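User: Can you help me understand a structure? I only have the sequence.
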Amino acid sequence: MKTRAQVRADFDAQCGAVANWTRSRFAADVFGRDVDSLMGTTVRLYAVGLGDTNNRMGGTGNGYRGRPGQGLLVETTVIVRWAYRLRLKDQTLSRDEAEAAGQELIQACEAYTSTWPGELKVQLQTVSAEVVDSGEWFLGTATFVVLHALPIN
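Assistant: Let's start by predicting it. Here is the structure, written out as tokens:
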């Protein structure tokens, strides 16, 4: 069983283990909104946040609340955001490099090892990207749906 915070922290650890990436000091909810916050920082930044958590057993109205010892079967949306500094004189090639770099984070989150994902069931849902108006930063977002048991005791 994992709380929402534990699921987020697990994804954060997966991303943090990827070479050459640095965790942003900003929450994923605001990460990249103000590109000035990215200035003077490393070339590769990431942030991990959470979206909704939904009852997998049908939601309200069916009377199912889960058992304290087993938790409640839920789907939690995990959002991985990343920023990659682009080279202004070669944005096209640099953007391709940014896509490849973001793929490293996606692969880390989709990996299967002796310790990951453990009891979590991880599925990539969407990947989106944009270049900020100044042309200096590539911002990517990967959204995962994670099936897990949420503690309720």
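Now, to help you interpret it: The first helix runs from residue 4 to 16. The beta strands are 22-23, 44-55, 72-85, 121-131, 137-150. Let me know which part you'd like to focus on.
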